[in-house]
Design goal:
A hairpin with a 6-residue loop joins strand 9 and strand 10. This protein is of the alpha+beta class and about 425 residues long. It starts with a strand and ends with a helix.
Length: about 425
Amino acid sequence: MAPIDSDDNTTAGQGEDLRTGRRRAARYVVPVAVMGVAAATIGLVPALADSGDPDLPEITAEQLIEKIAASDVQQLSGTVKISTDLGLPDLGGLESGLMSGVSAGPGSGPGSGGDEDGSAADPSAKLTELVTGTHTLRVAADGPDRQKLSLLENAAEYSLIHNGKDVWGYDSKSNEVYHSTASDSAEQPEKEVPATPKDLTDQALKAVDDTTSVTVDGTAQVAGRDAYRLVVKPKQDGSTVGAITVAVDAETGMPLKFTLTPSSGGAAVVDAGFTQVSFAKPDASTFDFTPPKGAKVTEGDEAAKAPERGRGAGGDLAKELDGLKGDDGLKGTEGPKVIGEGWTAIATFDTGGQGLPTASAGGDLGGFLGSLGDQVKGDFGSGTVFKTRLVNALITDDGKVYAGAVTKDALVKAAEAAR
């Protein structure tokens, strides 16, 4: 099938939805080095690896987006493979350790144990493992009251189960259980990390506005299902985002595969797709759960009452990132402002002169941090740009921060213009 262009099918007035979607997506894919900085700007985007080229009726991009929106798959089961490659430097395992620390607080992290360390089965901490590396998930759903997601690990498994009023998290490695009830909305653990192609697609489609090109680019076959390929690309130069390609099931309208490639090319930053899927009703026993004998069980209300363990304790990471969007911003700083629009929007704020320590003033720490970034100079003075394959951040020596899913040159130009 030939590509079908539909650049005019964007929805007016969704600029704010774009920025909101990017802010929410930050908690999912931003690396530790710039997590707090880029929380206000990052969005998800992809390109697709698939097989087959089924002959399907032509469809416009607008019709395909409507098909996704109208999709109402209530029952399914399957296996999803998700890979994330932000291109962070190899720090000998420090990267994954930092991610756990940011999620669960100093000295906690999944599997750390200890009465004051929370539960290794708390989903707000456990599912952050999906932001790096390659993982295999088993998913099942039977309507709005029954869902199950299992993260398969080496000789271990983590499961998040919603069955009626009960929400269970179980970590087989530590034999710990986390429990809350769906009726206790304040205590219910939310699946903060988008783990399926549909989750990722819902986030990406929030980026569709008049700065976006949307087309249908042929067909594909994913997990044995015929699908259309929806491609979303920035129209603007300067974005690190290359293109979003979503494989949409031709029959149900459900996204089957989502792959994110950066504008710099190379391997995907995010690639998530079903390797097997069935839309038959799962067996009711799939959602049954009883804590194993000897397991440590933590109730959600007990976890909420536990003393904070420092920045990002337990599920508070999301609240902290959301706090970056408020008028108060970070303590001691002005709230972040947004420069530009669409895919090249840049969040900026002033730390009040709290720049990175220099090699002379910060000793080994200053030298280490400097070695992880690129030194830049301009009318704004000097600073350091920290780069990943998707999110970049410029921190000037006088404490100004500029961050977004944009190139290093775009950050430098923004800093120059701000002077």
